[in-house]
């Protein structure tokens, strides 16, 4: 009896609950074969020698200035000690150069923070845009 009388539905439910995987496996195998055949066609290239051009503008490497503040608060411009007025003049001269030099600020470990801040403020007033701090790594 194809329709059943409602008494033995457990057998029909078990048969209907399984998914037939055969058609899906067939489709996947066909797709795999298509990709295996098509892949060499996609990777086929023509070797040509293209010209090269350098489009980056040539920029001169700016000089760098080492500005040190010693433990007693004295500022040094590339190793030469400077008073506050001479330091301000050197910073203004450096700010007017094109391109501006990079200022590498080195502060002694024992220097009062006030002296380093004064040098930083003087560099900012002069118009210095490239100011970096130099430290030593922990060993």
Describe it for me?
- The protein is α/β, with parallel strands linked by helices.
- It has two domains: 9-43; 64-133, Nucleotidyltransferase, domain 5 (2-Layer Sandwich), CATH 3.30.420.270.
- The chain has four helices and five strands.
- It has helices at 9-17, 22-43, 84-96, 113-126, and strands spanning 64-69, 75-77, 80-82, 102-107, 131-133.
- The chain has a five-stranded mixed beta sheet with strand order 3-2-1-4-5.
- The longest helix is centred in the N-terminal third of the chain and has 22 residues, at 22-43.
- Ends apart, CA distance between termini: 89 Å
Q: What amount of the residues lies in strands? A: 15-25%
Based on secondary structure, the structural category is alpha/beta
What's the average pLDDT?
82
- Can you tell me the CATH topology of the largest domain? Nucleotidyltransferase, domain 5
The CATH class of the largest domain is Alpha Beta
Q: Any idea how many domains?
A: 2
Order of helices and strands: HHEEEHEHE
- CA radius of gyration: 39 Å
Oligomer kind: single chain
Global shape = elongated
Strand order of the largest sheet: 3-2-1-4-5
- How much helix is in the residues? 40-55%
Spans with pLDDT under 50 lasting ≥5 residues?
Answer: none
CATH architectural type of the largest domain: 2-Layer Sandwich
Number of strands: 5
Largest sheet: 5 strands, mixed
Tally of contiguous helical segments: 4
